[in-house]
Amino acid sequence: MDKKIVYYVIAGAVLILIVGIIIAMNQGGDVVPAPDGGTPVTEAPKSETEVNKDVAKELNLAEGQLPLRVTMDDNGQSASLTPGKNITLMLGEDYDWVISSSNSAVLSQRAVGMNDPRVQAVYQVVGGGTAVLSAQGACKSGAMCAKPAVNFVFNVDGVISENFEPEDLVK
């Protein structure tokens, strides 16, 4: 066999091995120990919908009462919501966020113990009126951000329905 062919075969095998290692390193899932103590299993990361369901569980919401998930795609948008509705802010992991509400009589921040870096805050509509959720993000050190700083604004109109009793306004 020609030495040149042998070198090509070895180089190809090494290339395949390197590509396989790179792919394995970039899977991005959590490693979970195997139940039998064998080889650990890699779990796929949760989708934003699954994370939002986790927020609903943390808030003890009834089945089907998912919070409104607000992302960077909603920048500049508005929503009319009745008191009791929750909002999950999921603005991205690459920025350090400073978040505020312009009217605490309409929007109140909820204490939620989420360990997912995609969840920046959870708010609840607590009354009628208007409020603006605003966020300023600064690119984290080492992150690959399109911009060094970003601003986010989401307008909320708290709409009180005739069907609400005063004790239903804040949960």
SSE diagram, text form:
Layout: H1 3-25, E1 30-32, E2 41-43, H2 48-58, E3 68-71, E4 78-81, E5 86-90, E6 95-101, E7 107-110, E8 121-125, E9 129-139, E10 149-158
Parallel strand pairs: 3-5, 4-10
Antiparallel strand pairs: 1-2, 5-8, 6-9, 7-8, 9-10
Short overview:
The protein has 171 residues and is an alpha+beta fold. It has helices at 3-25, 48-58; strands at residues 30-32, 41-43, 68-71, 78-81, 86-90, 95-101, 107-110, 121-125, 129-139, 149-158.
Q: What does this protein structure show overall?
A:
By secondary structure, this protein is α+β, with helices and mostly antiparallel strands. The protein folds into 2 domains: 3-43, no CATH class; 66-168, Immunoglobulin-like (Sandwich). The chain has 2 helices and 10 strands; from the N terminus they run αββαββββββββ. The chain has helices at residues 3-25, 48-58, and strands at residues 30-32, 41-43, 68-71, 78-81, 86-90, 95-101, 107-110, 121-125, 129-139, 149-158. The protein has a 4-stranded mixed beta sheet, covered by helices on one side. A 4-stranded mixed beta sheet has the order 4-10-9-6, with no helix packed on it. It has a two-stranded antiparallel ribbon with strand order 1-2. The longest helix is centred in the first third of the chain and has 23 residues, at 3-25. The radius of gyration is 23 Å and the shape is elongated. 18% of the residues are buried. The model has no long low-confidence stretch (mean pLDDT 82).
